[in-house]
Amino acid sequence: MKHVLYGKCVKCGKTYEATPNLTTCECGGILDIVYDYDYIKSQLTKEKLAERRNNSMWRYRELLPVEDTTADTPLRVGWSPLYEADRLAAELGIKKLYVKDDGVNPTASLKDRASAMAVAKAREAGAKVIACSSTGNAASSLAGNAAAAGLKTYIFVPSRAPKGKVAQLMTFGATVISVQGSYEETFELSEAAIDKWGWYNRNAAINPYLSEGKKTVGLEIMEQLQWKAPDYIAISVGDGCTIAGLWKGLKDLYAIGFIDKLPRLISAQAAGCCPLNRAIAENKPWHPMEENTLADSIAVGVPRNADKALMAIRESNGLVVNVTDEEIMAAQKLLGRTCGVFGEPAGVAGSAGLKKLCEEGKIEKDATVVSVVTGNGLKDVANAIKACGEPISIPGRMDLLLEEFDKRGIVVE
Amino acid sequence: MKHVLYGKCVKCGKTYEATPNLTTCECGGILDIVYDYDYIKSQLTKEKLAERRNNSMWRYRELLPVEDTTADTPLRVGWSPLYEADRLAAELGIKKLYVKDDGVNPTASLKDRASAMAVAKAREAGAKVIACSSTGNAASSLAGNAAAAGLKTYIFVPSRAPKGKVAQLMTFGATVISVQGSYEETFELSEAAIDKWGWYNRNAAINPYLSEGKKTVGLEIMEQLQWKAPDYIAISVGDGCTIAGLWKGLKDLYAIGFIDKLPRLISAQAAGCCPLNRAIAENKPWHPMEENTLADSIAVGVPRNADKALMAIRESNGLVVNVTDEEIMAAQKLLGRTCGVFGEPAGVAGSAGLKKLCEEGKIEKDATVVSVVTGNGLKDVANAIKACGEPISIPGRMDLLLEEFDKRGIVVE
């Protein structure tokens, strides 16, 4: 990989050759993939990109840590739509809002970006089996992307994982271990098993390539905005890998001169589980928290990628905001009603956070904001129904319909 | 619309001016939109299409019944991936198989294509409200596409509609009436309400434009195959609108010389509800059937678009195949395991049918086949779990993991 220099520990700075099965630093720190931006600049231009017909994350090959000879992964991951959300912007009282719907990825979440990268690197490593622990989406995306590539998967999920995600895993033919315990216990068991059997490791805070997959969401947002950086990008935060990946993508583009300013990140966590945001707000090291939220994908009491995430929020002069389950559910309905986008609870936490910040007057009225929806609401129907209520239920008779409309004060236009 | 001649009744041949709120013929027959193919040929070339960056169904504007001035609808519908499914082809014993995953549409089903068209035509008609009845997917797609466009919706679903679809509807802010009865009773109530209040009608067998939206799946398949028509296209059939739309798209392309042969259609219905396939198999008029299948989207005992669907199957010299619920569930797992594609029960019926025909020796071994997956498995998680089983559930301990692997005969590679 001519464009990749090495993996560098974010804690101690030690560097490692960028072999396909790179994990963490011997000091325990997480590695960051460091690029030769001068070389990349000599290879990639905006015009070249604009010509490309590859509507997947692999259109950004020059910025991704794979060999030239490594094939695109089979499922079409990325290049999700960026919608202009004018009605929602008006409701929030900001100038311009875009919603990036990553729920239309093949397994219906942003995590497909990391899992596609895991599959690409596992192939480079000659691995036949990939494993991970996950609150659900990393798992289902790995299972799907690996199945399409003919690789076997072992997946560890906490028993609270929503049924939709478990159904995906089982359908994709993964061997699924549902751990009766927290995400932390799930993670520990997966690490022990990976150690024992030598499987390719897709745990996002261990394998430094996965953030590089996730960063493509940032690359796309900028290309879709014709390289005009917005003022803010709001996103939900659990383990910390996604916001760290997003930030990496933005910094890459800044380094190669494709954008001339960096947006501020808005880190949205659940009020019931916000160790990273608390660390920022109190300007202290992070400490574990309970996992008290219905937003399962971001219910991470012991964030595995705290270092990179905190660095990203701080470097971007970011804002942190914690949202209650009620605020998350309200954001689900708000996005659905105004944008036709149905996000899962964790997926809309960024939008819920943005709404809250707008109400608190913390976002300038002339700001341009991007809100990333990280997963599809169909992943967690039980909670969506809690949020949105039940339909009118009647036998097929017009008189009963009129009666119900009357009772509910529905005035037909 | 210079490229549209008129709407023509498929029963009596009477023609109607193509106004935006066209419904059925006075004889009760369904209308077909008839184009001026010479004019279209003068406007559209393969090269022109290849240049286009519009990765949605609206890239085929010259073949769609909308005014030049009508805007693309807001959600990004269509241009779903067509995957080469080599491992599945090998398992089925055919030369080449492609899987078209329409479950990645914005509301996760092929019906988005028809609903986007409904929204476009409702706007042309100046309507502010759209209504429909649906087994679920037409409903959720209408609710989503209309919400994104700022239109109000009234939606009628049978009470058996899966929770995932209902959650979508409610989230998109539709007024939802769940009818305690069959699809037929649901349909009748929706028609009565549409009559009463004059809402824009999105019932696919009434509004002739909707098939024109659905046909884009056929246009895309052909463009994605570089205009080399496959031997067969397999698809699930309920109301009949989708297979009729697919066929219309193929015929359009043949008429303007973009393809030089027409594929044979494979019409897959549920064994417990196959009035159209029965009519073909027995070469008799169709008769209503019970709705006995878990594949809710194709559980249509009184198909509303029987005429167009039967015509499509016959004209294409098509094959019919009925699949049991067990065969449908097996196809869910097969597609998941070999392709990383998770389809809902009705969505994989086409693949289940193809598998059955292959086993019966009815598909030539050197055939090239496209199988359309019409909806995402996340729409109906309850049935997916029935199909795929439950994960291994243990506390987070290595000894218990080893014990379980042993018990289940899982040999780790």
Outline of the structure:
The first copy, chain A, is of the alpha/beta class. Chain A is built from 16 helices and 14 strands. In chain A, β1 and β2 form a beta hairpin.
Q: Return the string of H and E elements of chain A.
A: EEEHHEHEHEHEHEHEHHEHEHHEHHEHEH
Whole-number radius of gyration of chain A?
A: 21 Å
The portion of residues forming beta strands of chain A comes to 15-25%
General form of chain A:
globular
Distance between the termini of chain A: 62 Å
The biggest sheet of chain A amounts to:
6 strands, mixed
Mean pLDDT of chain A: 95
Strand order of the largest sheet of chain A: 4-5-13-10-11-12
Counted beta strands of chain A: 14
Total helical elements of chain A: 16
Stretches with pLDDT under 50, minimum 5 residues of chain A: none
For this structure, the quaternary state is homodimer
What structural class do helix, strand and pairing data of chain A support? Answer: alpha/beta
Present the secondary structure layout.
2 copies of one chain form a homodimer.
Chain A: E1 4-9, E2 15-16, E3 31-35, H1 37-43, H2 46-51, E4 82-84, H3 86-92, E5 96-101, H4 112-124, E6 129-133, H5 137-149, E7 152-158, H6 163-171, E8 175-179, H7 183-197, E9 200-201, H8 209-214, H9 216-224, E10 232-236, H10 241-255, E11 264-270, H11 275-282, H12 306-315, E12 319-323, H13 325-339, H14 345-359, E13 368-373, H15 381-388, E14 392-394, H16 398-407
Parallel strand pairs in A: 5-13, 6-7, 6-9, 7-8, 10-11, 10-13, 11-12
Antiparallel strand pairs in A: 1-2, 1-3, 4-5
Helix pairs in contact in A: 4-5, 5-6, 9-10, 10-12, 11-12, 13-14, 13-15
